[in-house]
Amino acid sequence: MSQASDRVYAALRAGILDGRYGFGDRLGEIEVAADLGTSRTPVREALRRLGSEGLVEVLPNRGARVRTWTAQDLEETYELRAVLEGLGARRAAGQVTAEVVDELAALAAEMVTVDPSLGHRPPGDFADLAALNARFHAVIVGAAGSDRLAATLAGLVQLPLVMRTYHRYTPAALARSHAHHHEIVDALRAGDGAWAESVMRSHVLAARAVLLASHRDDASGSAATDPEGQAS
Amino acid sequence: MSQASDRVYAALRAGILDGRYGFGDRLGEIEVAADLGTSRTPVREALRRLGSEGLVEVLPNRGARVRTWTAQDLEETYELRAVLEGLGARRAAGQVTAEVVDELAALAAEMVTVDPSLGHRPPGDFADLAALNARFHAVIVGAAGSDRLAATLAGLVQLPLVMRTYHRYTPAALARSHAHHHEIVDALRAGDGAWAESVMRSHVLAARAVLLASHRDDASGSAATDPEGQAS
DNA sequence: GCGACCTAGATTGCATGCAATCCAGACCGC
DNA sequence: GCGGTCTGGATTGCATGCAATCTAGGTCGC
Description:
Chain A is mostly helical and 232 residues long.
């Protein structure tokens, strides 16, 4: 992490994910380098890396832009996540330890307690829920014990909208998500790979449906692009 | 392609795939740059790109080496290919045109005609078969119409041993492979996504079994490392 | 004789200069 | 007035110099 290249990469990634950089924004090498107090070389490396992960698109001799997501992109990405995370759940079911299952159960339970739609949090405060959810999925992928799978999923990009996603969840959809989590835990504890895979696929495809509906309602794709906005 | 960076990338990739660079070989920036008549900058870019695709491993401050494949790597990679190419076949079944199906049928038929185990070629001449097979799979992925899926599969790396793989196929395994190809064509022509997906998964998993058996027999992992060897 | 430390060489990582490419605007011809 | 061309500015892509880091060998101490 002390490497400048990694710092630039992390900064750009965070900036894109939390909306500091809006869709289509130009990422000039000189500009970014000046902002982060480094030279163009590490910036170039970070941009190529982000490009291979799909977060930015790099055009030859024309620089990099923050990737714009179409409905089809969302659909394809979540279809891939459905089969890949399903595979991860199936693999995990065959080898996961009781300790890890307990951790997952705890995460699933905690997610309910921080769900704003259930009155445990101020309405709209989905930050903790999103973080717990990300960890839940990461633990399962880790329990699958496949570096290749983990790397492939990591390359599939956390959507820039992750946090905003939950805003479009109806209370019913959130309840279904919680139910899926608990069911996945049960399937893993039972060591039932086919069950775990099936529920995980349903879980991701349900998320896809919410996301697509949400995206469809976004007539004005206005990203919050406060140029000087600072987030932790 | 006129870009130096792309030329270096292509040269290194080809060199690794055809065995000119052996497993574990060190890829020093200066050395590669001198070999290809360029400077270190494009070499660095190419190495990072190959690293993100899994063909080489880059250690911080310690340079890049050609990735060594373990049995588990093979297993994980083919497990991923099985689900991803299965997904591709399912998607393709829903939208493929008759022309593309005809092309696939022609490829499947031609593969039989160039199969050395059937006496149509000198024994051991699997080059054409491998090329046709690669094209067959590429056409299906293309027909799936998902850029994300295509990119993910491309990142999953053509194994360095692709060509040598066929050498370990028994005539029965080759016959099964041909049968799978024809069955996939039939499933696509019928527009039956579930069928196409299932056969494709079987096809890839069968290849995995052959590869793992082959890898197990490789007591001496001697890669043909003729340092000055030139292939096409 | 064996092990730890220390130094020298080599290599990666970063910064910066120069050439090639691309985009914008104005100018000219029709 | 409109379209094509040409030039200027800016940006990317490549080459190279310098500093930081790592590996290897030798030396010193025990």
